[in-house]
């Protein structure tokens, strides 16, 4: 690995293009070799994971809306290319790839239930897969090309999230997704470094937005935001392939991202990148979710499953005076009481808000001794007096040691959990702590292929029949060796198809 230093350059400094971060990312896409076997195996796991969570969300309103929009942009296009599949629609029905990326991206993101990588910033690197798959289907790339492209996109995403914090300046994390999708598409299509460089610049420029989409009253845009980034990145690559350029230097320029939206003209960032020709392996640093909630609550749910029976034995929720979670800065300020968001304690809050409220998530997990993507949220989970009282008794505080571990470069020390102190009405306490979620690679029950397949089948149960589940899994498990014609099988369709809304928009 190399540590690429990124800083603002005045216009008269004339920073060489080959020294710009966007160029280095484009060069990575152009030179990354075929993926290692363990990386290819993880790519397959994440494809299965994405499709499972997309399947479970098919009848949710944001997903139905996005699917309807995509369906109004059907292929084949005038170019004669094949188009791309949309989860929930029949396999022969194809749409323009940017719209397939849009619909599938929303389906993958809606339940907040796929993979994550946390470092200087946040990310869901599985958001790269829908646009890459859509373009691969549309342009006739094979499974090996798609596998390599996904590995490259993950590499870029992890590098950016490791080196550059957007959250401190309230920039939404999808500003790292646009460039990673563009780089992955460059690898998929074997584009020259120059073309991918221009596409990365365009993608970053057009996907930089504020973080209000994940703050306060959180709406369905939380699911749409990464899908929008994927769609915009496809369009950026298309323009770059037609010879159109981007603002440059996009990161380092005097009026660029770092100078005005991030740490300012004196900032220096370090972005870790593979050496030229070094294989892309960063996907192995990322991790998926066992529970349908924001990643920093995953370990909290697992410790709550342990604490729930102990609280029940002590007299139940009525015996609890207060619960304090001692945790990292990020957890406290993003999904905890340190956010200052009253909505995180509001019984009328949206599902999107509740899956970013660790007090709510902990309360439900304590009472139910588990957490479920439907049964743990209203209206399925009734907000009774017991739940609301316990929820409002929970708060978070930042602990410097948990913050240090959150940012530790040592994977064995890195932690996303915290220490829970339960104070009972009789003055006694119950304490427990957890460093990482059970499903994390360093957790009590790390996810492997069997767990990804089980998660897919659990989420598909009642939505897809057994034959459709088997058909998809057979195709997904053979991804690295699939022919271009077989990539169309990497989708799922319920018997009778998924529904569409009655309303109509512009199209």
From TrEMBL:
<dbReference type="InterPro" id="IPR045336">
    <property type="entry name" value="MmgE_PrpD_N"/>
</dbReference>
<dbReference type="GO" id="GO:0016829">
    <property type="term" value="F:lyase activity"/>
</dbReference>
<dbReference type="InterPro" id="IPR042188">
    <property type="entry name" value="MmgE/PrpD_sf_2"/>
</dbReference>
<protein>
    <submittedName>
        <fullName>2-methylcitrate dehydratase</fullName>
    </submittedName>
</protein>
<dbReference type="InterPro" id="IPR036148">
    <property type="entry name" value="MmgE/PrpD_sf"/>
</dbReference>
<feature type="domain" description="MmgE/PrpD N-terminal">
    <location>
        <begin position="25"/>
        <end position="267"/>
    </location>
</feature>
<feature type="domain" description="MmgE/PrpD C-terminal">
    <location>
        <begin position="291"/>
        <end position="477"/>
    </location>
</feature>
<dbReference type="InterPro" id="IPR045337">
    <property type="entry name" value="MmgE_PrpD_C"/>
</dbReference>
<dbReference type="Pfam" id="PF19305">
    <property type="entry name" value="MmgE_PrpD_C"/>
</dbReference>
<dbReference type="InterPro" id="IPR042183">
    <property type="entry name" value="MmgE/PrpD_sf_1"/>
</dbReference>
<feature type="region of interest" description="Disordered">
    <location>
        <begin position="58"/>
        <end position="87"/>
    </location>
</feature>
<comment type="similarity">
    <text>Belongs to the PrpD family.</text>
</comment>
<dbReference type="Pfam" id="PF03972">
    <property type="entry name" value="MmgE_PrpD_N"/>
</dbReference>
<dbReference type="InterPro" id="IPR005656">
    <property type="entry name" value="MmgE_PrpD"/>
</dbReference>
